[in-house]
Amino acid sequence: MEHVRAHVLICAGTGCVSSGSKKVYAALCEKLTQKGMDKEVKVIETGCHGFCEMGPLLVVYPEGVFYVRVQENDIDDIVEEHLFKGRIVERLLYKEPVSLEKIPNYSDISFYKKQMRMVLANCGHIDPENIHEYIAVGGYEALARALGEMTPESVVDEVKKSGLRGRGGGGFSSGTKWGFTRNAAGDKKYVVCNADEGDPGAFMDRSVLEGDPHRVIEGMAVCGYAIGADEGYIYVRAEYPLAIKRLRIAIQQAEDLGLLGDNIFGSGFNFRIKIKEGAGAFVCGEETALLASIEGRRGMPRPRPPFPAVSGLWGKPTNINNVETFANVPQIITKGADWYSSIGTERSKGTKVFALTGKINHTGLAEVPMGISMREIIYDIGGGIPDGKKFKAVQIGGPSGGCLPEHLLDLPVDYDSLIEVGAMMGSGGLVVMDETTCMVDVAKFFLNFTQSESCGKCTPCREGTKRMLEILTRITDGNGRQGDIALLEDMAKNIKTTALCGLGQTAPNPVLSTIKYFRHEYEAHINDKKCPAGACTKLAVFSITDSCKGCSLCKKACPVAAISGEIKAKHTIDTIKCIKCGACMAKCPFKSIING
Amino acid sequence: MKTIEDLKRLRDKVQAQTNLRHSSGTQVIVGMGTCGIAAGAREVMSALLDEIAKRKIQNVIVRQTGCIGICSKEVLVDVVRPGEPRITYGNVTKSDIPRIVTEHIVNGCIVNDLVIGKITE
User: Fold this and answer.
1) Each residue's pLDDT tens digit, B32-82
2) Which residues of A touch B (CB under 8 A)?
C-alpha cells in the first residue's frame, strides 16, 4: 500500500460531463499510470460544484487548487507540472472577470465568496458513489441521533422549530406537514421525495441527487422515523439518468451497511426506499398527480382535501417533500433547530439554492442565505450580464413565478417578499434577461410551456392557457387588438382562482408580472406594432442608416436578395422581400442596420 | 452496522480517506525544481511515500515546491509540524528518509545532522 499524497477531484455532474469531464478523467488516469503515479494520486469523480459555466472543473488537493475549463490536452501540464513538481498551472486558473486576477483557491472566487453552501456542502467535495466519504464528513449521524436520542415527536418539533419551509415552491412549513402525517390515522404511512424537477432553468435537485444522494436518503429516513413510515419513494424523472444511477448505488450501499432496512441502529425502526422513474410530465411535480403516477395511473391531479397527509399514496397518510427540503433535514438534527433558525429572515429560515441561467456570466448553482438581495445574487455571485448589456429583468420561480425588474433588485429574497411583488420562490430557477429580451415573448415562452404541460383535466387550465397563448401570439405577431391587455388580465384572474391544481393556478403569473412591470412593452406591440427589444421578428423592420459605407457585406448575407445598392454607396432593404432573419444586421461592421 | 458506536468507528476509520482535503497536520515539502529533480527528488519523494504508508501515518501532507535557490544542497525536504518552525533538510537521499519520518514526523525530534535551515513563521 502506498500513501496517497494528492487527490484530484473531477466534477462528474451532468454539466461538466457534457463539457467533456469523462474524457479528462480517462486522460488523467492514463497519464498517471504512465508516470507511475497512479498509486500516490487518487482520482475521484464528484458531483456538481455549481460553477457549471466554467466546466469541466478539477480540484487538486492538498493545495485545494481549482482549475477551470480543463480539457484532455491540459492533462499533461497538470500531471507534469502540478502533480509531479508542485507547480500550479496558472493558465488553467479561474480569472476574475473584472480584475483579471488569477485565483487558485476555491473559496476566494467571487462566485463562491457570498455563498453559504450548506445543502451543497458536499457536492463536488465527496465521491457520491462511495458511502464512506459521506460518513467521513459526518453522514448518517443525524439518523443515528434521531433514532438513538430523540422520540418521533421531538424530531417533528425540532423540524417545526427550525422554521424549514418546503423548498419545492409552496413554502409550507415542513415540520407542520410532518406533524399532520404523524397524527393522521393509519397503519401504513409513506414518505415521498419529489424529485420531478421540471421548471425550465432549474437543476438544483438534480445536482443534489448527483452530488450528495445520501443526504437526501438520510433526510427521508429521519422523516420516516418522525411520521411513523417504513417505506419511502423517490419520484425522479427518467431524464436524470445519472441521478437515478447514483441514487441506486447509494440506496444499495446504505442497505449493505444496515442504514436502510430492518431494525436500523438496533432501534426497531425499519425503513426502505424505492425509486420510481417518472416520464417527465411537468404536472407530475404536483403532489396528487405525482402520487397517481407512482400508483401506475395517469399523472393527473385531484382536488384537495383530502391532503396527502391524510390520504396519499394508495390512500395511506403520505408526507411529500422536495429533494432540497429533505437535504436540509440532517443538519437540522445534528446542529439543532436554533442554529438553523439563526440563518435567514424572520419567516424564511436557512438557505436556498438558486439555479442561475439566461443572460448571466456565471451560469450555475448558488446557495445563499435567505434574505440576500437579488442584486448580490446576479452581480456579485453571478458575475453580471455578459457582453456589457443592460439588465432588464429576472424571472424567478420558472413558469409559475414572475419577473422582477431592475428597481426591485435590492429586495431581500424570501418566500413572502417575492409573493408580495407578484413572483414566487418556486423551486429557485433564476432566468436572467437583458435588454434584448422582449418581455411579451418571455411571457409567451412560459405560457407555451405550461399550456403544453397542462394535463387537460380542468377547463380553466386546458382552455384558458390556450386562449391566453393565442392572444400573446397575436400580440407578438403584430396583430394585437385594443383591449387585449385587459382581456389577458381578466382571464389570468379567472384561471388563477378556478384551476384545479398549482400548475393552472400559477400559469398566468408570468403574464401578470410582465404586464405589471412592462406594460409599455405590451402597449408598444399593440399600438405601435413595434417590439422595443427588437426580439419579435414579425414586428421587425430593418433599415439601413446613412452611416452605411456600401461594403455590400449585408447584400451577400441576405438569403432572399432583399438588399440592393452599388459598392461604396448606401444600400437599401426591400421591406416586402425581407424575411426579417437579421443576417444582415449581424454581418454589418458599421452597425448601420437598425431594427425599427 | 448495529449501533451508533459502529457508525462512529467507521467514520473515524474512513476519515483518513478524505483528511487530505481538509486536514492541517504535519506538512512535508519536497523541492521539485529542476535542480531537485536532477539530484533525485523523485526518488526521495517515492521513498517518503513508501515510508509513510509502511508506518500507516495519518495526517501527513506531502507537497512539492520549486527551487528556492540553494541548488547545491538539493534534494531539500522541509518538515513543518503544526505550531513549530519550518525545518529544512539538505542533501537528502532516500536512505535518510526513514530517520526523518520516524524521528521528526512521528516523534517530533529534529534530525540535527541533516538540518540546513530553520524558518520561524
Assistant:
1) 988 999 999 999 999 999 999 898 888 888 988 888 888 888 899 999 998
2) 1-7, 9, 40, 61-64, 84-87, 125-126, 132-133, 135-138, 140-141, 144-145, 148, 257-259, 265-266
